[in-house]
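job 3f2a | input accepted
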Amino acid sequence: MPASVLQALSSRGTRVLEAALESAELALEAALAEHRQRLQACETCGNQTQPCPRVQRSTDLPNTLGDQPLPGLCGHQALAAPTVTTAKGKIVGGSVAPRGAWPWLVSVRLDGELMCGGVLVAPAWVLTAAHCFTGNRNELAWTVVVGDYDLGKQDEGEQELPVSRIITHHKFNPKTFHGDVALLELTRPPVPTPWVSPVCLPDGPLEPAPGTPCYIAGWGSLYEEGPAAEVVMEARVPLLSQDACRGALGQDLLTSAMFCAGYLSGGIDSCQGDSGGPLTCQDPGARRFVLYGITSWGDGCGERGKPGVYTRVAAFADWITRQMQRECHCGGGTG
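job 3f2a | predicted structure (335 res):
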């Protein structure tokens, strides 16, 4: 691989992206009930007489709270569908997302400073990019902020949670970015609110066809080497075929565990600071979003002929499930 290509990959760095009282009471009751259930499960697991319970994703529950997501209901937004973004020069080429549009988006922080984005995929688990932790694997230095929106102020409902474990994929290659995926286990689940709910993971290997419009979101730079966004930005990007991606970026740069999304004409893309953030597509026939990609790398931001590259979540579905089920973890708090 040419040195210039390796340099481009390496310099990518951290790129790659209210509710009524009744609703709050329901959320709190559900959280307490889940905590009691987890404690009971951990007691059973501690005896090692049976495996720990599987992580359950309740994707078929009726949404009795209207547009507000039920606690444990994956992939449902607190607000209406996202803005349809066209190329207009600010993610890069994106637009300001309404607060609560992406309740699974979290900020991953190193010593309190934004390092990467992340995605809430289960009550106490965040999926992000492995390359975010190349320089520091000390869990004590990392926190995750759920319900985050404006980096410059404390948002209502924002919750900062310590990280208990950082699990990077064993085949992650920092030179090629293959296997660029990591799981963060939180010390405790966040309290569910309209601003905080998990995204759905893919049900199988099938993925949307090339050309399908999907969405990226994060606090990354508004342009290459530019300042980070203060609030969440969003953009709609089409999925590209593997052939189109390889044709744009080179045969040797793309593995089957990666895919491209964006516009070959440029203008809309993820950028530095968006790394680890979500690329989600709306499930046809269901009002839910499914996580298909994790922002990984790219050659520049929004340049013509150079789409963004994303870790293919479906390729790591078994690994994600195994990690979340491997051990019984009794988080240390109820809040």
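job 3f2a | The CA atoms of residues 58 and 73 lie 5 Å apart.
job 3f2a | closed
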